[in-house]
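Hi there. Long-time user, first ticket. I'm pasting a complex I've been working with (about 294 residues overall). I'd like to know whether the download I got is complete or cut off, because the file seemed smaller than I expected. Thanks.
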Amino acid sequence: MRTLYAELSRAGIRATASRIAVLKLFRDHPVEHFSADQIYRRLTHDEEPLSLASVYRILSQLLGAGLITCASLGDSRVVYELNRGEPHYHLVCNHCGAIHNVTDTTLNLAYQSIAAQHQFVYASASVVVFGACPDCQAARNQKARSG
Amino acid sequence: MRTLYAELSRAGIRATASRIAVLKLFRDHPVEHFSADQIYRRLTHDEEPLSLASVYRILSQLLGAGLITCASLGDSRVVYELNRGEPHYHLVCNHCGAIHNVTDTTLNLAYQSIAAQHQFVYASASVVVFGACPDCQAARNQKARSG
DNA sequence: CTTCTTGCAAAGGATTTGCAGCGTC
DNA sequence: GACGCTGCAAATCCTTTGCAAGAAG
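Hi, the file is complete. Here it is re-exported in full:
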């Protein structure tokens, strides 16, 4: 875990046990999405004694340092994930809430063009696609057959 | 305002003064976006005595009836607007928060294709493009010149 | 008249903050 | 040793809800 320590220092964030634990969680699950509360419960359950308030403070610092990113998925659902440097979209299941990452750079030009058409200077885009995931489709079909 | 009355009845919503006032606000500003609080302040300031709780209840009913739509713009900013039947995206200024509607149906196919690639059944997509609006660009340039 | 709406005030969940004490540099 | 970090509890913000009184059909 020297890496995490160094990474935090490099980012100008004082390396503490709590911060290393949070960053480690993200590094151990590079493509997963966590809410603040999930992080809190997971770390306290595992080993790390830390408060929810600290989780929020730490997330805000990691965000500021660009080590993680966050996404609002509607319904006041905010999730954080490791910043792997590739912009992506989120595909969210309307039924179970599962979140998939979609890496697709082909549309970025479209967003910049949309911004340009309105004389905006493009900064970023947040894209969330909602639908029914394979598992929930299967479950629905099951129900339809039995019901 | 007979129209509003009829429209509510047709939607199965009992026509009350508060509900007509809220729907009228949307009809009078067909391309504007309002937060629940903005609606509340606007109507109470104007004439209509209604509570914030009622605004939320009314918005939820108009949403259910499909008369309006809502959008989450990140930062827990939720806005409502008249449902004009054309799906669109939002272009948001990072500095002043201004919201523009962008009508572009060319991307919908792309989102459906993205969903299909992950075996999802497409339902909807939420697209928010962030940037700097013309006014804020001008303001920044002003500052840069003078500062 | 019956049923649905409203206002109020209180509850709710998510996030933030002030402050005293402890860890990191 | 100074400064920044943490936990705790309280404060916020936005939204929802229970209940008694008031309007709509």
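A couple of notes from our side: Residues 14, 16, 18-19, 49-51, 53-54, 57, 76 of chain A lie near DNA strand D (CB under 10 Å from a C1'). Chain A touches chain B at residues 72, 74-76, 78, 89, 91, 93-94, 100, 102, 104, 106-107, 110-111, 114-115, 117-134, 137 (CB under 8 Å).
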